[in-house]
Amino acid sequence: MSLHRYELGFLLIILNIYSLGLIDAVNVTASDSAANPLQAPSYQSHSSSAVYKPAVDSSYSINLLSSFPEDVEISEYCSEMLRLFGQRYVAYVNCLIPAARPVRVCQNCSPEYKSLSDVFLNISSDQMGPGNVSCRDSILRSDRLMLVFLLYGNLATIWEKSNCKQCVTTDLKGPNNDTLYYLTLLNQTITCFEKYKEGNHTELCKSCILPYKDLNDMYSGMEKNSTLCIDLEDSMNMTRKLWSKNFGCSYPHGETIPVIAVSSFMLFLPIIFYLSSFLHSEQKKRKLIHPKRAKSHNSLMNIQDKQS
Amino acid sequence: MANITKKVSWSSRGDESGAAGEETPLLNGSEQSRPLRQMSSGSTVFQIGRLSTVDLDEEITTEEQDSARGRPKEIPHNEKLLSLKFESLDYDNIENQLFLEEERRMSFVAFRCLEISRWVICGLIGFLTGLIACFIDIAVEQLAGLKYKLIKENIVKFTEAGGLSISLLLWVALNSFCVMWGSIIVAFIEPIAAGSGIPQIKCFLNGVKVPRVVRLKTLVVKVVGVIFSVVGGLAVGKEGPMIHSGAVLAAGVSQGRSTSLKKDFKIFEYFRRDTEKRDFVSAGAAAGVSAAFGAPVGGVLFSLEEGASFWNQMLTWRIFFASMISTFTLNFFLSIYHNKPGELSNPGLINFGRFESEAMEYNLYEIPLFIAMGAIGGGLGAFFNFLNYWLTIFRIRYVHRPCLQVMEAMLVAAVTATVAFIMIYFSTDCQPLGPDHTEEYPLQLFCADGEYNSMATAFFNTPERSVRSLFHNPTGTYNSLTLGLFTLTYFFLACWTYGLAVSAGVFIPSLLIGAAWGRLCGILLASTTSTASMWADPGKYALIGAAAQLGGIVRMTLSLTVIMVEATGNVTYGLPIMLVLMTAKIVGDYFQEGLYDLHIKLGSVPFLHWEAPATSHWLTAREVMSSPVTCLNRIEKVGTIVDTLSNTSTNHNGFPVVVQVSGDDEVLFDLATDKNAWCKILHSCI
Prior knowledge:
The complex is a heterodimer of chains A (308) and B (686).
Chain A: H1 2-22, H2 30-35, H3 62-65, H4 76-96, H5 105-123, H6 135-140, H7 147-162, H8 177-196, H9 201-207, H10 209-225, H11 230-246, H12 257-280, E1 285-289, H13 298-307
Helix pairs in contact in A: 4-5, 5-7, 8-10, 8-11
Chain B: E1 48-51, H1 63-66, E2 74-76, E3 82-83, E4 87-88, H2 97-105, H3 108-161, H4 164-189, H5 198-205, E5 208-209, H6 216-231, H7 239-255, E6 257-258, E7 263-264, H8 274-293, H9 296-306, H10 313-337, H11 367-398, H12 402-426, E8 430-432, E9 451-453, H13 454-459, H14 463-472, H15 480-497, H16 507-528, H17 538-554, H18 558-568, H19 574-591, H20 595-602, H21 621-624, E10 632-633, H22 638-646, E11 654-655, E12 657-658, E13 672-673, H23 674-685
Parallel strand pairs in B: 1-3, 10-12
Antiparallel strand pairs in B: 4-5, 6-7, 8-9, 11-13
Helix pairs in contact in B: 3-4, 3-6, 3-7, 3-8, 3-10, 4-6, 4-12, 5-20, 6-7, 7-8, 8-9, 8-10, 9-10, 9-18, 11-15, 11-17, 11-19, 11-20, 12-15, 14-16, 15-16, 16-17, 17-19, 18-19
GO cellular component, one term (chain A): cytosol
Keywords (chain A): Membrane, Signal, Transmembrane, Transmembrane helix
InterPro entries (chain A): Osteopetrosis-assoc_TM_1 (IPR019172)
């Protein structure tokens, strides 16, 4: 029993060093992670035993760990998968954060997402791995928190919302042809902006209208086909803001005079119509028929007075 | 012997000349002088007027009649006249020998079959009403979509190139074209199909036989007319015509024959009497309301409130059945049309959207605010009715020729387009285009790229969509100036539009006006207090404003509350809506009557209200009945009968048959209808 314990402790220390070497901000104790739930997804090192790794001053003693029997521990294969998942998760998030503003997540981070989703697919598949174990239940569904499931779910939602599928190739290796073409146009427009930025803005409006228009048309076309991802939307948004707000190149207000003239004419027509019908039409009259009432009675006169 | 060949027909169209005389009006071949009665000044209630489309050639001319005294007095139309052309429905069965024999022949099983066939007819009424509503909805959506797409493309093209006046002309032309067709069919083919149809159905359900109101021709003209009116961009709704259509369908289906098509299908012959017809028309009206708003219980209550005089449990049950079938059919077929079969999310023509309870909660301290909004709605509604009343009088007096009516409708359409265009053109309110924008045709016009003109969401849309966006768009979509201008212009446009010779309703325009100023109130409230979160969503104020304005204009109480509650799908709003509608009715009734009642009065319909006028309870029958009584002998000359029946001043539906005619003898025999008396008497004479 004590030999197991030393083995355990040795293993734990090695893993600790390994994990510390790998990542900067890492929570290694259960108490720590409990105290900072809002930190970025933390990587907890997993051992082949039960869940928590004790800190030096933690109240948990190593005695607890050895109390779990063999059959509730996760297998080696599964813990390896879990470790791999952790690595890829971190890689993906590391790629995402720098690409957050301006949004470039689809162009830059698709391969990382692909590898992450491959691992997760492996974990959650029904197939039995080597040693006849199913990792899905032991990793994903063993506790109330379902941490791995939640974390992956978050990232998958982000991927869905960013609509990246539309502008990368099917094997998620990189941007597809349309996106590349769009990016070329975007580049052209931005270079044009850069060139004329210093001078008069009207100069810019005149010279850069062509690349901007091409870009706009391409964007509208893609919008109609719904092949837009967040990268393209954001870049278009920023370009439009530059064009309209910073450089002030919107459409001119056009001629107001013809519009006012036509509208006044239209508004004047009904007046003419009503006046002419008032003056020329024969007023519709009604023929009165008087009912025959009983002969005049005193009370009748009273009625007339009361009714009028 | 009376010269029958010279007489005009004694049908109920009543286009004859006639005048009351001191003596009995029998014209037994002798020309009679027609002394003119002086109009008693100030007497208000019992003047009877008639249409003056008189063929004076038919009159028998004498020297006496050449004098001006012979002509009956003519006055311009006003609201205090009653027309002689209206008869009442016969609510009593004609219990003559034929009828009694027929009843004796029917067995118990036959009566049960009758009961089942009543249910079948009600189901059929609901089903057909739902189908018609579906047809209207789809047609409007397609055609209006086409029109807006065309105009939008044109505007987009001309915004860059300049020359937006061409877009304006295109919009005006499209509007006028559509409305021209809608108005032509109404003015030339079937004038009774003009307006919303609710006043006519109200009269029908209350016993007045408005001629031609439930014919197939009327139905066709109404449905096609409403499609053209809505597509033509007028400030109208399609809910009122839906109610009329439901009633027509009910009358047609339940009788098993069609007068317009001159075909008799030889079924449902038992129901060919006014008692049964009236019950089915109530069911039809309820089905119409239910299809229009997605409110089956509201439909039943509408029939109860407006019409059916004789109410019993089985009738209520059948009417409810018809309403439910109607809304379900509409829902089902619309879901198929939207390619989501079985989703059942379009229960009515107008869809207010779901009011989520969380964001739209109201607090107790907002109730006085709601009541204040109800008072405002009542006041504005009374003003609307007042303006519309004078406009209608002007139209009846001066714009009565069909071609003038068509021209007027086209002008209104043109001005509507112009006003909308000007508002959109000069508005500088731009909003960013969200990813889940509900606008079908966002107009960018002079806004920056990626933004759209928010005045266009109000004007460049069918009114239903505008109402929905006012209810549900997030805070900040509209600013106060936009809403204020919109309310003002749309108020006057809607007031001008109601009463045209087009088939059009007034529900949606009033809801839209109310939603606009309600939302404005919500925005102002949020801006006056520092903690904006206290007032949450301006959408619920839009709802309250819409209810207040609608209540102020039409003054319906119970049915409208239930309709609004059902249409918003949220029972918690029942209390504020009820309070608001009651307040609006009280405030509005102080100034002016409801719109439909005004139009009934202006149509010279002898409509009996629930209760007699307030100070008339002491009147005895003697003072209001004609004297001498027009009655017939048991043995009577054919000429006398013809004269009595053809004299328009005495075209009652029944005449007492007495033993001798002299002054005020007692009436010894019971009432017989004119047709029956005619047949019986002819039979006994020949």
